[in-house]
Write a structure and sequence with these properties.
The chain contains seven helices and 16 strands. With 230 residues, it is of the alpha/beta class. It has one domain: Metallo-beta-lactamase, Chain A, CATH 3.60.15. The strands form three sheets. It has a seven-stranded mixed beta sheet, covered by helices on one side. The protein has a seven-stranded mixed beta sheet with strand order 7-8-11-12-13-14-15, with helices on one face. The longest helix is centred in the middle third of the chain and has 11 residues.
Length: 230
């Protein structure tokens, strides 16, 4: 499989017969070179959204329309996008699994918030989530925006993910130390890739604190648009 960081929380995951874009924010993302947009979305087969905040959702409708692919997300967000944008969607909810080709995508709980801007204030669009993405006996956990949760222990027992793509920037989500705590306490990852950091000055700029806490785990500070083969 190949995992390519798109900056912030966006990732491109090439797994099995699928190319999944997760929270692909490629327009106005300070960490992403917009001249690489075509490379980032090329061949994508589906889009996964973790919640409705602009830095996760804004580019998804245009990409879905351009590539004629579906967006998968929480039921309320999917219905809202379908009504607003007239695009293909699949809405599901925590604990549900959608099969895409030979890849299984299971939605799991996160703890954050999920809203879009409306004319009269925030429009709440379901709740936030993460994903377990499985193929051929290997599983990736994409945490979405979240803090540490005891639920993560259940996720491990049910899914046994070997790769964790964990939000770790602090301020809006868990920081490097809290993400490392989650990885040590609840999971048995072989590889951890931090995300949702570096984008803005108020977020953490380095994964060194995570690396110190996770000795024996391959913590990869990904470079934007540089594929990681696992």
């Amino acid at each position: 499989m190949k995992i390519t960081w798109l900056g912030h929380s966006g990732v491109r995951i090439e797994i099995g017969d699928q190319v999944l874009l997760v929270d692909p924010w490629v327009t106005g993302n300070p960490a992403f070179d917009e001249s690489r947009r075509g490379d980032a979305i090329k061949g994508a087969t589906a889009i996964l959204l973790s919640h409705a905040h602009f830095d996760h959702v804004n580019d998804a409708p245009a990409i879905a329309r351009e590539l004629d692919i579906q967006i998968l997300s929480k039921f309320e967000l999917a219905n809202w996008l379908e009504a607003q944008e007239r695009i293909k969607v699949t809405g599901f909810n925590n604990g549900g699994t959608v099969t895409l080709g030979d890849v299984d995508v299971t939605m799991v709980h996160a703890t954050h918030s999920s809203s879009a801007s409306g004319d009269h204030g925030p429009v709440y669009l379901g709740t936030e989530c993460g994903y377990m993405i499985a193929h051929g006996g290997r599983t990736i956990y994409f945490s979405g925006d979240t803090d540490v949760m005891a639920d993560m222990g259940i996720f491990h027992e049910l899914h046994r993910p070997e790769i964790g793509i964990l939000c770790a920037g602090g301020h809006f989500t868990m920081d490097m130390k809290r993400a490392a705590f989650a990885a040590k306490r609840f999971f048995d990852f072989k590889t951890v890739i931090p995300c949702h950091y570096k984008t803005f000055p108020l977020l953490e700029q380095s994964a060194e604190a995570m690396k110190k806490e996770l000795s024996g785990v391959n913590v990869i500070e990904a470079e934007v648009m540089t594929p990681i083969e696992l």
